[in-house]
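TICKET: design request
STATUS: open
ATTACHED STRUCTURE:
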């Protein structure tokens, strides 16, 4: 499981995700948690990571795509990283942390590209826990989101621009 809610994560959604992942049914999951170096909740997150038998904390990484590729699914924010997760075929449970993220996140949820749990204001640990359970128990969710994500964001943007420039 890849967990990343932005570099700052001022609402500490990472902490809620780790709380949800601390339930016994998830103790077998490998969890990679990424935060920025200026995360105001770093000390608490470090303590939560230590309590999970298979969790690792990464601070201010340069290899975020490598961590994403290793994951089966992600817990993340609805910002720009959404497009990176889609491009890599990484199924995602998403929480929006800014109002401008809601319209496109709602669209992606409606068309089953991602699982949107709502906004950071309304998120609770039990909702997150249930979404993780659903994802772990139903591999079809992971397969569907993975293939759909790579269709909508194929990752060959520079090649497409080059073709247009060469032909146009």
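STATUS: resolved
RESOLUTION: sequence designed for all positions
ATTACHED SEQUENCE:
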């Amino acid at each position: 499981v890849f967990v990343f809610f932005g570099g700052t994560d001022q609402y500490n959604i990472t902490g809620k995700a780790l709380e949800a992942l601390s339930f016994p049914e998830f103790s077998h999951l490998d969890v990679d948690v990424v935060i920025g170096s200026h995360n105001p909740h770093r000390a608490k997150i470090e303590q939560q990571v230590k309590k999970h038998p298979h969790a690792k904390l990464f601070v201010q990484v340069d290899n975020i795509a490598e961590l994403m590729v290793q994951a089966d699914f992600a817990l993340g924010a609805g910002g720009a990283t959404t497009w990176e997760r889609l491009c890599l075929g990484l199924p995602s449970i998403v929480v929006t942390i800014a109002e401008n993220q809601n319209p496109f996140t709602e669209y992606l949820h409606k068309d089953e590209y991602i699982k949107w749990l709502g906004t950071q204001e309304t998120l609770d640990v039990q909702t997150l826990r249930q979404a993780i359970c659903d994802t772990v128990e139903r591999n079809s969710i992971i397969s569907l989101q993975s293939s759909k994500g790579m269709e909508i964001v194929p990752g060959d943007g520079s090649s497409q621009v080059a073709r247009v420039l060469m032909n146009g």
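CLOSING REMARK: The longest strand covers residues 31-35. The CA atoms of residues 87 and 156 lie 9 Å apart.
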